[in-house]
Design goal:
Length: 157
């Protein structure tokens, strides 16, 4: 059985491995990671993750997106961060509420579940909503803010 201390150490090691430096209890977390997606091995919860926009080439234009996994949050599946406006970023789960399929990265204003084809909007007016294909509820959305002065995107996981 893991002790609380060993769990924290493991989490720290994980964060070092993927390049994210955590500061626990709601303080800022600086994400230095690039290409660290899809490696769920941590147990973070109730924290804020930050992403430096300058490091994310796929988020430089409106409609661009990235997939990122933050430990075991979001059932260990990636979230999808999308630039929906010049100064606005939004984050949705890739976990399909229908039967748990994986929702692919956005294309043409929608993201499609690979399992049964549910389609989810990726624009400001329909973000994460089921807009076609298999009928289901909306994808979970995570509160996301952007500070244009610092170029930091903050996601509450
Ligand atoms: S699991 Fe996504 S549409 Fe069925």
């Amino acid at each position: 059985m893991k002790t609380k201390e060993s769990s924290i150490v493991n989490r720290r090691n994980f964060m070092k491995t993927i390049g994210i430096l955590p500061v626990v209890s709601g303080a800022a977390i600086v994400a230095l990671c690039q290409g660290c997606s899809d490696s769920p091995t941590s147990t973070l919860s109730g924290e804020t993750i930050t992403i430096t926009l300058a490091n994310e080439s796929s988020l430089q234009s409106i409609g661009g997106s990235i997939r990122r996994t933050f430990g075991n949050n979001n059932n260990g599946l990636p979230v999808i961060v999308i630039r929906t406006a010049q100064d606005k970023f939004r984050t949705m789960s890739s976990y399909c509420p229908h039967e748990g399929g994986s929702v692919a990265s956005p294309s043409g204003g929608k993201a499609i579940c690979s399992k049964h084809g549910a389609q989810f909007g990726t624009s400001e007016g329909n973000f994460a909503q089921n807009i076609g294909g298999e009928s289901t509820s909306s994808l979970q959305e995570f509160i996301t803010t952007y500070n244009s002065s610092t170029g930091i995107i903050s996601i509450s996981i």
